[in-house]
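Researcher: I'm preparing a figure for a lab meeting and need a structural model of a single chain. I don't have an experimental structure, so a prediction will have to do for now. The sequence is pasted below. Please return the structure as tokens so I can convert it later.
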Amino acid sequence: MATGWLKAIAADGELQSAIRIVGLVDVNPEAASALAAEFALKDAMIGSDLDAVLTETAPDLLFDIVVPAARRDVVATALKHGCHVLSEKPMAASLEAGWELIQLAREAGRLHAVVQNRRFISGVRRIRRFVESGAIGDLTAIHCDFFIGAHFGGFREEMEHVLLVDMAIHTFDAARFIADKTPLAVYCHEDNPKGSWYAHGAAATAIFELSDGVTFSYRGSWCAEGANTSWESEWRVIGTKGTLLWDGAEDLRANRVAGSEGFLRELAPIEVPDPADPRETHGHASVIADFVRAIRSGTKPETVGDDNINSLAMVFAAIESARTRQRVTI
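Model: Understood. Here is the structure written out token by token.
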């Protein structure tokens, strides 16, 4: 993921001029050295001791791209050194740790935000704008399907609740953004299907209750071979007057009820407008740019921790529901 972040910065002229990498830290310094060589970061300090590198380089911000179990200590150390912190998702390895990081950021007077890069893509931005326009009436439901046979190797194949913690967070956060509603409760079934190459929780089905009577359902698997969906999921967004469909890629279409008679009412297609701001559609680069703008302006980035914890709460409520086989309030 560090490679992906640095590629995003290198590909964006504004970010290139705004950000100078002064250090790379890894438990394996050879990995950090290889990354420095790949991106010609000749002046970047290399080390395995985060505290020591922060002391030596005194950076303004830290990009936290570690595995979830290490997140709390990395973010706390950076905040102690006066850094703003932009973390990979999920925000924390537990809800309690997430609240702790929010408090630590407040006490330090620094920003801690999370890379929810999949809300910063054209399709999600277009749907949010479309729903806000009222083109299909009042929102009533969002349904998402995610099925991919992903052979990562490495830490993901050993994680507990791997789909919910490491991937579903993207869809949950995007759905919360599109609906602009508060998650209230969830019922979730989680399993590890026969033939799965993951240790735990490669598949899940969840039904969320959102505010204003909106339902959000999620069906997903990371070990479903044979018919992959998009990484962004396949979406059905239903309103009181019509429906929008998105394949998670380029096919985004909507129909609105146009007739008032007959068993099945006549429909008319509706154009889905472009994003309001194209700068918000470049994934990691857009999140990083939003974070830099927030630091400079003294405002909050869109995915700041005290908002993003609502998406994290959806994940851990789903896990608790799967464990107890009960509806869980959020």
